[in-house]
Design goal:
The protein is built from 3 helices and 3 strands. The chain is of the alpha+beta class and 62 residues long. The chain has one domain. Strands 1-3-2 form a 3-stranded antiparallel sheet. The longest helix has 16 residues. The mean pLDDT is 93. This is Helix-turn-helix domain-containing protein.
Length: 62
């Protein structure tokens, strides 16, 4: 069964950005995340919805 969340490291790899940059975006609230104790997790469904919105913005679609 596939996990319902990504780690910030996994998100960084998926986006092709540095780990530190991914954490910056999480802290800024750009990338949707939730904190479970000391762990920061990114819900897959919210991440992909966010990514789709960002892709639509950069392609000029509404």
């Amino acid at each position: 069964m596939e996990s319902l969340t990504y780690t910030v490291d996994e998100v960084a790899a998926l986006l092709g950005i540095a780990r530190g940059k991914a954490y910056q975006h999480v802290r800024a609230g750009d990338i949707p995340s939730l904190r479970m104790g000391k762990r920061v997790l990114v819900p897959r469904d919210r991440f992909h919805a966010w990514l789709n919105r960002e892709s639509a913005k950069s392609s000029g679609a509404a």
